[in-house]
Amino acid sequence: MSQAGKTKFQIDLRRHLREHYVNENLTHLICEIAEASKYIIHSISTGELGVAGTSNLYGEQQLALDVLADRILRKRLDHSRVVANMMSEEMDEIIPVSPDCDGKYSVAFDPLDGSSLVDVNLAVGTIVSIFEGCDLLQRGRKQVAAVYILYGPRTTLVYSVGKGVHEFGMNMLREYTLLQENITLEPQGNLYSPGGQRNLYTPGVEAYVQKLEDRGVKLRYSGGFVPDINQVLLKGQGIFFYPHLQNQPQGKLRLLFELSPMAFLIEQAGGAASDGRRPILDLQPEQIHERSPVFIGCKKDVALAEEFIRTLENQEEGPTEKKAKN
Ligand code: AHG
Ligand code: MN
Ligand code: MN
Q: What's the predicted TM-score (pTM) here?
C-alpha cells in the first residue's frame, strides 16, 4: 500500500515522531528505546526468574531480569550517539556517556518496573524520562519527553514530547504502530489504585480513601506502577496514589525515573500529579534516587486528596515543601 494510502492506524512510531516535527536526535533516541523493548520482551518471556545475587542502592534484591533489562537499555543508549548522561534504578550513580551536551539528551529510566510481578505473570513495564543536555537533576517540568512500554497481554508504548500523549501497539512484525493519539483524562474518575499498606495511612489519606469508597469508586490495583497508570490513562479516568506512610514519609516511588515521567504524561493528558501538597513536576530533586509520595490522575481527584491532607494533617513544612520553594 502506498505511503499516502496508509491509514492512520498504520503510522509507525518513527513516522509519528517525524510528523510531529520532533528533533532528529530525539526521534532516534525514542526509537532506540522502542528497539530495546523488543529484547526486554524476549528476556521476560525466556529469561530465568531468579535473583541476580546482587542488590541495588536501595538494598532491594535485584532480579536477574532487572539486571538484564538494565543492561539491554544501557547498551542501546550507550551506542545511540545522542545520549550525554544516563541513570537507572539499577545503577548507583549517573553514568557519563558523552562529554558534550549540545544536541544530546540525558536519560533516567526504570528498566523493569514491577519486576517482582513477572513470576506471577502480571504486567510489568519500562519507564523513561528524557531531558535535553547533560543535567538529570532538574525539575520534571523540564523534561522534553517521557516514554513507557507496557509488557502486558499486548505490548504497548506510550510517549509524549509535550504535544499530547499517544499510544502505539506492537504488531506481528514487532513494529510499534499508532493505536490512539491525544489521549485525555476526565476531570474526575470512578476508580482508584491505592499503593502502600492501608494500616499505615496517615489521617488525611485515610479520610480521602473513605470519601472515595463512600462515593462508590472502584478499587483497581495490580501492584505494577506502569499497568496501574496505564489503566487510568486509557480508561481516561481514575487516580493512582502511593502516599506518604506513617513509617515512610517519602512513600516508595522514585522521583527521577518513576514519578517525573508519569507525571509528565498524565499532565499532558490533562490530569494532575502531586506529592500531596505540590505538583510532582515542580519538585527539585536533590539526589538521583530520592523518593516522593504521589497522587496522580484526574485533576479533581488529586485536588481532593490535597484538600484532605491540608485540612487533616499538620501543616509543618514537609521536606518536599522546602525543596520545591528554592
Ligand atoms: P520496581 O519493581 O521498579 O521496584 O517498582 C515496584 C513499584 C511499583 O511498580 C509499584 O507501584 C509499587 O512498587 C508497588 O509497591 P507495593 O508492592 O508496596 O504495593
Ligand atoms: Mn520501579
Ligand atoms: Mn524497577
A: 0.93
